[in-house]
Amino acid sequence: MGETYQVTEQRSGQTFRCKAGQSVLKAMEQQGLKCVPVGCRGGGCGFCKITVLNGDFECGKMSRVHVPPGAIGEGEVLACRIYPLGNLIIECRPQPAGRLASEHTTTKVLR
Amino acid sequence: MKKGVMRPGHVQIRVLDMDEAVKHYKDLLGLIEMDRDDQGRVYLKGWTEVDKFSVVLREADEPGMDFMGFKCLNEDVLGQLRSELIERGCEVEDIPAGELRDCGRRVRFIAPTGHAFELYATKKQTGKWGVGNHNPEAWPRGLEGIKATRFDHCLLYGPNLDETLDLFRDVLGFDLAEQVIAPDGKRVAQFLTVSTKAHDIAFIHHEEPGKFHHASFFLETWQDVLKAADLLSMTDTSIDIGPTRHGLTHGQTIYFFDPSGNRNEVFAGGDYHYPDHEPVTWDAEELGKAIFYHDRVLNERFLTVLT
Ligand code: FES
Ligand SMILES: [Fe+2]
Fold first, then answer.
1. In angstroms, what separates the C-alpha of B157 from chain A's closest C-alpha?
2. Complex ipTM tops 0.90
3. Structure pTM?
4. Where does chain A show beta strands of DSSP type E?
């Protein structure tokens, strides 16, 4: 403990610090960044799915629907359930075009 | 027209880690642990509930809802509804008595939205926890956390809302209390009641079947909702939104997540519905306000974060 690592999200180029034992998603939220989408924060919804391109980490429990067996080895994990063991380079999924606009246009989403 | 279905009776929720889940539902939400079974399932209830349990937690490697059960007036009604479901073309699965501890036989079917529902008529009654029904005090001492009083309803996401409404209305005797209508006339949300509550079960249109949005628990007052929010912060629990008010049903609410990412709600107040009332209608253009009355904007999480 006491260690702090650097996490870089490749798509946005944003960088933030994450303490050992802290989830990557929580560290990002605490620093007011939004590069990874935030959902349930509990490994259940798959919203915060990222690919770890480089670096070591530990995982908590994650829904098998979103992280099938084998995916962890590929670095495909949920940011709310990974805890860095060193500096990380991550990449979130491409944001659907509607995502940013959808805050105000909800009916499309429902159809 | 009422068909003898009385109320939401139970919900079985899948959790990733049982110990964390029990801590959440018991210590934070304030449900009472009533039993465990040899499958490792944990049975809980809100303190005002007369039946033995209303929430069943099952450890699994994906979160979500296994099924929701409605309690019927008696075994005759249950038999009658079973036949009507079959006549309607529903595939019915008979679950023997005792599969859930101290619960009678259950009749399970899959709604057109892809969710499993059950009807049953018999469950052991242990009485209101800590007060009973003879000269009862106002509330029991020794409640924990948010002190949720009862399991109230679920909101589920899936396709085929029209067929689902027909089934719940015609066969099970629910009424449409509130709805959201898109500009093309399509109903995209439906809140159904089998009582005078604004909803006992709600559905929102979603392409993927069988998704779980939230299980909701009733609190007495807005002050209780604020205190729930305090406790969520004290325990660093993931909050979705609130405290705020819904436009739909006008309940005062806060949404948050259990440690496996299943959404919970605690709420107070809300409208009432009688069978002679026309449904309350919200236009989809006003959906932001319909869902979150004060923000008047949906957060994207509401529509997309599901288990
Ligand atoms: S935010 Fe839901 S799985 Fe990470
Ligand atoms: Fe609700």
1. 10
2. yes
3. 0.95
4. 4-9, 14-19, 49-54, 57-59, 76-78, 82-84, 88-92
